[in-house]
Amino acid sequence: MRSVLRVLGRLAALVQGVNRLAGLGAGLLLLAMVFMVGRETIGRYFFNAPTDWVFELTGYLLVGIVFMSGGFILQEGAHLRVDIFYTRFSRRTRLWIDALACVLALPFLSLLGWQSLQMALTAYRFGERSLIMRWPLYLPELFVPIGVGLLTIQVLIHLARAVAELSSGRR
């Protein structure tokens, strides 16, 4: 049993490392987006030289930022919750709430991940391209199933930790 727990611990550490990299990547995408929007604003309003591609590309980057950062946000405990109530509960009650939230999130994440993967694969099969830049659409669409997959694994890790602490009997 200890060897299984050791393997699961290593797997959790690996996934959390990947989530950290995904969070860093999302931050870099945000920085790139800021520069692109700044360049577009200056070009459009000061030099009367707008571009066609900035709006389209920043939309794709926003999808990447949102979905690739989800697992990292959960890992860091930075997701949104109603703290005005949550912080008033005992540690054990908070663990039960966390576990329940994880259990409720798993079916939604599974469906979202599956459907978004199907969407990206369909875009790949049919050779769908973006309107302005003519980029293959499956590339930005892959942000969704990859990000949801990382978030789902992080939810499972979060659930396992909550259950382990609840079953240990610690208060």
Structural description of this entry:
It is a single chain. With 171 residues, this protein is mostly helical. The protein has one domain. It has helices at residues 2-46, 53-68, 70-76, 83-86, 91-126, 138-141, 143-168. Helix 1 packs antiparallel against helix 2, helix 1 (2-46) packs across helix 7 and helix 5 packs antiparallel against helix 7 (143-168). The radius of gyration is 20 Å and the shape is elongated. The two termini are 24 Å apart.
Distance between the termini: 24 Å
Would you identify the regions where 5 or more consecutive residues have pLDDT less than 50?
Answer: none
Amount of helix = over 70%
Multimerization status: single chain
- Mean pLDDT comes to 91
Task: Tell me the total number of β-strands.
Answer: 0
Q: Helical region count?
A: 7
Q: Which percent band covers the strand fraction? A: under 5%
Strand and helix order:
HHHHHHH
Radius of gyration: 20 Å
The biggest sheet, with number of strands, parallel, antiparallel or mixed sense and barrel status, is: none
Overall SS class: mainly alpha
Number of domains: 1
Which word captures the global form?
Answer: elongated
Key traits:
mainly alpha; 0% strand; 7 helices; 81% helix; 171 residues
Topology record:
Layout: H1 2-46, H2 53-68, H3 70-76, H4 83-86, H5 91-126, H6 138-141, H7 143-168
Helix pairs in contact: 1-2, 1-3, 1-7, 2-7, 3-7, 5-7
Briefly say what this structure is:
The protein is mostly helical and 171 residues long. Helices cover 81% and strands 0% of the residues.
